[in-house]
Amino acid sequence: NAGVMQNPRHLVRRRGQEARLRCSPMKGHSHVYWYRQLPEEGLKFMVYLQKENIIDESGMPKERFSAEFPKEGPSILRIQQVVRGDSAAYFCASSEDRGPTEAFFGQGTRLTVV
Amino acid sequence: AQRVTQPEKLLSVFKGAPVELKCNYSYSGSPELFWYVQYSRQRLQLLLRHISRESIKGFTADLNKGETSFHLKKPFAQEEDSAMYYCALFSGNTPLVFGKGTRLSVIA
């Protein structure tokens, strides 16, 4: 089991471009969570998805950000028209169930907007 | 709203000295509390959870509902304990809520 895989590890985008971050959960895990870590900040929850459903997107900015977890393939976090303030580390985690179970984290994607 | 507070951004201790990483939470119900650790260039990983009441790598943490705290302790710090430590809360309604983290530096 390769664990939670995120790619790319590093992503550089110019202002106004789109960023697509991918997350493949652990085998058998159907719950995916995205977190953002800004410099000097902790991990901030963004969105929680199950296969084909968004369960909780209370941490997602209202504009430019979207997430999906299709029936087949990885979960995608999409940021449209990126701005400098989007520069951060984005972490994905997956779990087998919803609940106080262990969530396994990926190594993160570091997005730099220039 | 749930909140996790880790008051120390950086904690430096000498090897062999006791360590206490502080964590306070705000939540009116009965939360599940966790400590996660991130070693240099590695992914975030679960260190321990309060419901299992176990000791991992010599670390323990006790949930104190009266003080709404879940401090992480180790009697004798080792150099390999140097890492970022995150306290996290699960309330059953939202996914894990994390504190801002404390960087532990163990000096030889």
What would the principal axes of the Cα set say about the shape of chain A? globular
Number of separate strands of chain B: 11
Helix content of chain B: under 10%
How many extended strands of chain A? Answer: 11
Low-pLDDT windows of residues of chain A = none
Q: Helical proportion of chain A?
A: under 10%
Structural class of chain A: mainly beta
What percent strand of chain A?
Answer: over 45%
Order of helices and strands of chain B: EEEEEEEEEEE
Low-confidence stretches of chain B: none
Mean pLDDT of chain A: 91
The total count of helices of chain A amounts to: 0
Number of helices in the DSSP assignment of chain B: 0
Question: What kind of sheet is the major sheet of chain B?
Answer: 6 strands, mixed
Through-space gap between termini of chain A? 36 Å
Largest sheet of chain A: 7 strands, mixed
Please compute the radius of gyration of chain B using only Cα atoms. 13 Å
- How would you classify the quaternary structure? heterodimer
Q: Kindly state the mean pLDDT of chain B as a whole number?
A: 91
Structure description:
The complex is a heterodimer of chains A (114) and B (108). With 114 residues, chain A is mainly β. In chain A, strand 4 and strand 5 (43-50) form a beta hairpin. Chain A has strands at residues 5-7, 10-13, 19-24, 31-37, 43-50, 53-56, 65-68, 75-79, 88-95, 104-105, 109-113. Chain A contains no helices and eleven strands. In chain A, strands 2, 4, 5, 6, 9, 10 and 11 form a seven-stranded mixed beta sheet that branches. Chain B is an all-beta fold and 108 residues long. Chain B has no helices and eleven strands. Chain B has strands at residues 3-5, 10-14, 19-21, 24-26, 32-38, 45-49, 60-61, 72-74, 83-90, 97-98, 102-107. In chain B, strands 2, 5, 6, 9, 10 and 11 form a six-stranded mixed beta sheet that branches. In chain B, strands 3-8-7 form a three-stranded antiparallel beta sheet, with no helix packed on it. A two-stranded antiparallel sheet of chain B has the order 1-4. In chain B, a hairpin with a 6-residue loop joins strand 5 and strand 6. Chain B is globular, with a radius of gyration of 13 Å. The N and C termini of chain B lie far apart (41 Å). The model of chain B has no long low-confidence stretch (mean pLDDT 91). Chain A binds chain B through residues 3-4, 33, 35, 40-45, 48, 56, 58, 91, 93, 99-100, 102-108, and chain B through 4, 6, 9, 32, 36, 42-46, 49, 51, 86, 90, 92, 94-101.
